[in-house]
Amino acid sequence: MPVNKMAWLAFLLALAVPAAAQPGSLPLQDPLYKAVAAADAAVFGASNRCDLETFGSYFTDDL
User: Fold this and answer.
1) What is the pLDDT of residue 40?
2) Which among 34, 49, 36, 46 has a CA at the least distance from the CA of 59?
3) Taking CA atoms, which of 16, 42, 55, 61 is between 20 and 30 Å from 2?
4) Do residues 55 and 46 touch, judged by C-beta distance below 8 A?
5) 19 confidence band (pLDDT: 50, 70, 90)
6) Distance (Å, rounded) from C-alpha 12 to C-alpha 2?
7) Any domain includes 11
8) What is the rounded distance in angstroms from the CA atom of residue 15 to the CA atom of residue 61?
9) In this structure, is residue 28 part of a structural domain?
10) 12 part of a folded domain
11) What's the predicted TM-score (pTM) here?
12) How far is 13 from 36, CA to CA, in rounded Å?
């Protein structure tokens, strides 16, 4: 494989590696983390259950 193609492949693989957690990330016990996780679970839970009334209540009418 030519060097050019190997460099391109290495670059693409580097992009595919997931980023590590940021040093300032929130701990799991943080109240903000808990609030966001609860809201996320509620929205996607309603979506997964096909509960359109509850799901729709999370969005404004003009969305």
Assistant:
1) 94
2) 46
3) 16
4) yes
5) low
6) 16
7) no
8) 38
9) yes
10) no
11) 0.54
12) 31
Alpha-carbon distances, residue 32 vs 24, 28, 55, 58, 59 (angstroms): 13, 9, 22, 18, 20
Provide the residue range defining the domain that includes 59.
Answer: 23-63
Is pLDDT of 31 > 70?
yes
């060097």: which residue's tokens?
3
What tens digit of pLDDT does each residue of 39-61 get? 999 999 999 999 999 999 999 88
**Residue 33, SS3?**
helix
Using CA atoms, how far residue 53 sits from 14, 41, 59, in Å, is 43, 16, 11
Q: Is residue 32 part of a domain?
A: yes
Asked if 43 and 58 touch (Cβ cutoff 8 Å), the reply is yes
